[in-house]
Design goal:
With about 280 residues, the protein is α+β, with helices and mostly antiparallel strands. The protein is built from 12 helices and 9 strands. The longest helix is centred in the last third of the chain and has 23 residues.
């Protein structure tokens, strides 16, 4: 987020300072917001659902998506998985509360495989590559550049079933503390920030190579070939108003509820506010 604003020059358009603390995943972000230490957070598609299921409603103020998922379902080399139905009986990585969880559940569902028909191996994202190398799992949900790296090393094979590429789009949200939206000054600042972020993302769509060099190659010290693998896996960022974003969010809720991982079903509409819809429609 900070790097995107800097690379695009949009940070200079803001007339207030920003702090960008780092957190290790959705649960840490949720605790920081509950403690009042964080106003707004950028999260994946499942953390807002998990927060609401735990009794904390954090209104979603901005949604952006990529039509093609950045997640890939892969199998360890030597494990035959040609179609999604072949997942039955396999040891699969399971990262509860993450977008990878929803992606995996949807893959199993479309393959006609129940959660009780696979062996779920609870892992952290940081452990996925080693788990595949050490034969601890048969199947995992990865992102680039790890898909290309491990494929080139002969460790994995991306699952080639065309249905895998049609599972779920990659969706990301900004959600905010309710107290922020009750404060006119903070709401105005948030509107200014979201405008800058949308413009910065539009810049990255048009200038993908420049953005890749700035963020992946130079800031993260990723090899140029890995940067290219990441960029090749990304379709353009598309921003959605609250009304446009609700159906997909509801689908995610339904996926998790039907799999028995949510204590109760709820209506996605209650997770969104339309406060910034005009800004989204004007600037996207």
């Amino acid at each position: 987020m900070r790097n995107l604003l800097d690379a695009s020059g949009e940070r200079d358009s803001l007339d207030f300072g920003l702090e960008f603390p780092n957190f290790a995943g959705g649960p840490a972000i949720l605790e920081a917001i509950r403690a009042g230490a964080l106003d707004v957070a950028l999260v994946g598609d499942v953390p807002p659902i998990q927060a609401r299921a735990s009794g904390t409603l954090l209104p979603i103020v901005l949604t952006f998506t990529r039509e093609t998922a950045e997640y890939r379902l892969v199998s360890r080399s030597g494990v035959p998985v040609e179609t999604l139905s072949d997942l039955r009986g396999k040891r699969v990585s399971y990262i509860e509360g993450s977008g990878r969880q929803a992606f995996l559940i949807e893959a199993l569902t479309r393959g006609g495989v129940g959660l009780d028909e696979v062996e779920l191996v609870n892992l952290r994202v940081a452990d996925l590559n080693d788990a595949l190398r050490s034969d601890a799992v048969d199947v995992a949900v990865l992102m680039e550049p790890h898909v290309t790296r491990l494929t080139n090393q002969g460790i994995i094979t991306p699952i080639s079933d065309p249905e895998e590429r049609r599972l779920l789009p990659s969706t990301t949200y900004f959600y905010a503390r309710p107290a922020v939206l009750a404060d006119p000054q903070k709401t105005a600042a948030l509107a200014e920030f979201l405008t800058a972020f949308i413009r910065a993302s539009n810049w990255s769509n048009v200038n993908a190579e420049e953005w890749g060099d700035y963020y992946y190659t130079n800031f993260n010290r990723i090899a140029p070939e890995d940067t290219q693998a990441i960029l090749a896996s990304q379709s353009p960022v598309v921003f959605q108003t609250s009304a446009e974003a609700i159906p997909h969010h509801q689908a995610l809720i339904d996926i998790l509820h039907d799999a028995g991982t949510l204590p109760e079903w709820f209506d996605a509409e209650g997770s969104f506010v339309d406060t910034f819809d005009a800004i989204i429609a004007t600037n996207r």
